[in-house]
Write a structure and sequence with these properties.
The chain is α/β, with parallel strands linked by helices. The protein has one domain: Nucleotidyltransferase, domain 5 (2-Layer Sandwich). The chain has a 6-stranded mixed β-sheet with strand order 4-3-2-1-5-6. Helix 1 packs across helix 5 and helix 5 crosses helix 6. The longest helix is centred in the first third of the chain and has 50 residues. It is globular and about 50 Å long. It starts with a helix and ends with a helix.
Amino acid sequence: MPQTAVIKKYAVMTHLQFYSFLSTVSQIWSAVFIFNARIFKDNERAVAIHVKKKHPASRGVRLMKGDIFCGIDPGREKFGFALASESCLLFAAIVPFERFDDALSYLSSGNTESLAEWRTEGTVCRESVARVFLGNGTSHGNYEQGLQDAGVNYELVDERMTTLDARGLYWKLHPPGGLGRLVPKSLRVPPRPIDDIAAWAIIGRALELI
């Protein structure tokens, strides 16, 4: 076979392989997008529950209008801290673990000054906290010990998927502007750590279980 014909045949095969590769990539991307869209749909439903739903008061527990709840998202080096009513985030902070005493000071005596340093959302509430909810994730045992030593009553909460909930809650608080609105919701990444919003999600999770 002449060399020119061989070159042309090779070029045709290369183009076919290239287009086949593009088709495969396109199919993979479509599958990933659909998967993320389904995840976000479920997440958005969870966010709607956390933000809007009036939480039931079963097990004989009566939730009083105006009650303030505290959520703690435990971590090895830092923790998220949130204060919220049934449907509104009032205050949130991300605090180094070595300053957990600041949170305990607030919960046991109402001292708000130390927490203000770590504020990320809202303003510190001076009202007493009706319930404290601690996520059962990373290193939660260290936080349990601190709460017990300070005489603070608390409840452990299953925090699985609360990070995903927190992502949706963050964008509810801070809707993207400009070109950011064109990014699919499932692909948006918050521009900062959201341990504090995860603590809010833990409150929402706990109130559903009351």
